Structure prediction request, 308 residues.
Amino acid sequence: MHIAQIGTGRVGRPTAYTIMNTKLVDTITVCDTKPGLASAFAEELRHVNASIGTNIEINSCDKDEQVAGADIILIAAGKARTPGVKMTRRDLAVENAKIVKTIAEATASRNPGAKYIVITNPVDAMGMVCKKYTKAEYVISTGTNLESLRFRAKIAQTFQVPVSQVQGWVGGEHGDLAIPLWSTTKVANVPIWEYSQKNRLPFSKTEIASYMKDVSKLIVDNIGATEFGPAASFRDIIRAIIEDTRQILSVAAPFKECSDTTFVGMPRPVGKTIEPSIYDALTAEEQKEIRDAAKAIRQTYEQALEKL
Ligand code: NAD
Prediction:
């Protein structure tokens, strides 16, 4: 299993490191256009090999067209939000669409059959750009998987239960239109409303939803970037694909209920094939919110394409 990590900045590096620790890969290629960055990072990964006792082949390059023969290509290249500045991920669309297009065109023919996972923001629209310019069969973006982890972490804290007892997903846009899917949410295997009433533990939906959406800004402003939470979330997606676990994860893929090409984050079984989402199991209100998010994502994508 050969994974290529394109973009080895603040989020690409912990992602590659975390994947190495799964011991599910034989080869990792790291690529970054900043001179010297990927080759220096590759040295670090060789030291990780020495520590964890793996013999993973580590390659590095500074040109996207040098990435070849990968089974999975992770794209984490491009601009991130600036710490301390009021901006949304959508503000990155035009600049990052150019980068994702370049990478898509440079890698498609040298990596036949590769599965693409897009991390670059705004991630749903960038998944669409990647799909358009690679024409690869399997293209997803990391969608609202990270929000789903943040959502569960906050619920666990609210109810003072281990996070392993919390189930629930977030769908929609990775950003302002992230939708908490309350109908999927359980604590200790009981729907969250029932758990709250039975245990006389009132909770604020608004507080949980605000944390889920806004905590990334707190992290970016204080640390400079989100790193380990995303890396863990991407590792879960990659493990599900490699081992074909079909674990339900909220990744973004073409959202058939809205159009054949719009990517939107939805819980779906993740594995070697892209499966339909659980859209039909949601409430009518949740379905509407998801469709509204899909429209906003489509608009971001179309506006970015106009400027390419
Ligand atoms: P960063 O600035 O630290 O790193 C980006 C890297 O991309 C740089 O090293 C740059 O040299 C490289 N790059 C630019 N063009 C390239 C190309 N054509 N080929 C290879 N490398 C190229 O930024 P970061 O904090 O690592 O964030 C990267 C992206 O990931 C941003 O768009 C950010 O918003 C996004 N992100 C997404 C999630 C998610 O949940 N999907 C989470 C965190 C960050």
User: Anything to note?
Assistant: The radius of gyration is 19 Å. The first helix runs from residue 12 to 22.
